[in-house]
Amino acid sequence: MIFKPFKDISLSRLGMGNMRLPQRFDLPENPIDREKGREMIDLIMKSGVNYYDTAYVYNGGDSERFLGEILADYDRDSYYLATKFNYGANPDYKAVFEEQLKRCNTDHFDFYLLHAVGDGNYQDYIKCGCIEYFKELKKQGKIKYLGFSAHASHEVLRKFSDLEKWDFTQIQLNYYDWLFGGAKGEYEILAERNVPVIVMEPVRGGRLASLTPEAEAVLKEAHPDWSIASWAFRWVKRLPQVQVVLSGMSNMEQVRDNLNTFSDDRALTDEEEKLLFKACDMFKSQIQVPCTGCRYCCDNCPSQIDIPKIMTVCNDYRINGEWALHGLRDSDKPTPKDCLGCGECTKHCPQGIDIPALMSEMREKL
């Protein structure tokens, strides 16, 4: 395992995210599978990983309880524990903090974060008094390092970053969002302020662990022995402001692959980054529906489906997964479930999109 200095300590470059641990689906509330989770933690700990990340809301609180149980078998000085206060889940920050100490079976948190700061809630964190309270806990030693995780616009990230001298910040950072999202700007805002970055979603929730066959072929030709996911981790290693890269591992195969990737400092070269970006361009173009929103398809739809909107959701789903479908599932407007498969839309599509086939694909997801 490779390490990087952080203030007066040293942190493993790979951190254990505890949001996607294996679950027991045979039990009513799907708790974390203790046996499989312990096996993973034991190997990760044995391999030198010393940063463990959780949150008040992960697995309905079971993530914190799980870590409290499992890490009790290890010397408290052998690892660093990070968790988060989520204002939206429970604004009573004093009660939440005490509950988290009990759940995690500890008397302090090494890293403590305000959770998911964004444009819609950042004022809540500022006005509720939690920042001053957590700063006082830091003085008492109950919090070692204070920071926040962010899903915010660049403007709000700047404002919040300048509120305090934060010890660190956690952001979603991966090569796809660097090229096609706001990650590059977020990273640069934090780098300008010399704030250490903890990376979440380096493989974009697992979406970058497998690309299209053509995109994967580009990468496999260069390094047949590398997993597709490892390219994402090795790209993040290039960024000097990055302190720890979190991975929400769900099984032993992912654990072993990640431990291998972080067994040395090997990051992507400039030429390898070019290859990765080429593969990423291919991936995006190959999975995206080339809808231009012209609406020629809508006039003759017997079900009056807003087809361009469905095509947008389809693209979001292919990149971002299940969350993109929530709006459709709750909609009182016609959805892919109402599609008759008549083909009237396809007759009028300038892009030649097989709309009924995509409607069928989306109907199966709803």
Report on this model:
The model has no long low-confidence stretch (mean pLDDT 96). Helices cover 42% and strands 14% of the residues. The strands form two sheets. It has an eight-stranded parallel barrel. Strands 1-2 form a two-stranded antiparallel ribbon. The chain is of the alpha/beta class and 366 residues long. It has 16 helices and ten strands. α6 (154-161) packs parallel to α8, α9 runs antiparallel to α12 and α13 packs across α16 (355-365). It has helices at 34-46, 62-70, 93-103, 122-127, 130-140, 154-161, 175-180, 183-192, 213-222, 228-236, 252-261, 270-287, 307-320, 326-329, 344-347, 355-365, and strands at 3-6, 9-12, 14-17, 51-53, 80-85, 109-117, 143-150, 168-172, 197-200, 242-247.
Features:
366 residues, alpha/beta, TIM Barrel, 2 domains, 8-stranded parallel β-barrel, two-stranded antiparallel ribbon, 10 strands
Chart the SSEs and their pairings.
Layout lengths: L2 E4 L2 E4 L1 E4 L16 H13 L4 E3 L8 H9 L9 E6 L7 H11 L5 E9 L4 H6 L2 H11 L2 E8 L3 H8 L6 E5 L2 H6 L2 H10 L4 E4 L12 H10 L5 H9 L5 E6 L4 H10 L8 H18 L19 H14 L5 H4 L14 H4 L7 H11 L1
Parallel strand pairs: 3-4, 3-10, 4-5, 5-6, 6-7, 7-8, 8-9, 9-10
Antiparallel strand pairs: 1-2
Helix pairs in contact: 6-8, 9-12, 13-16
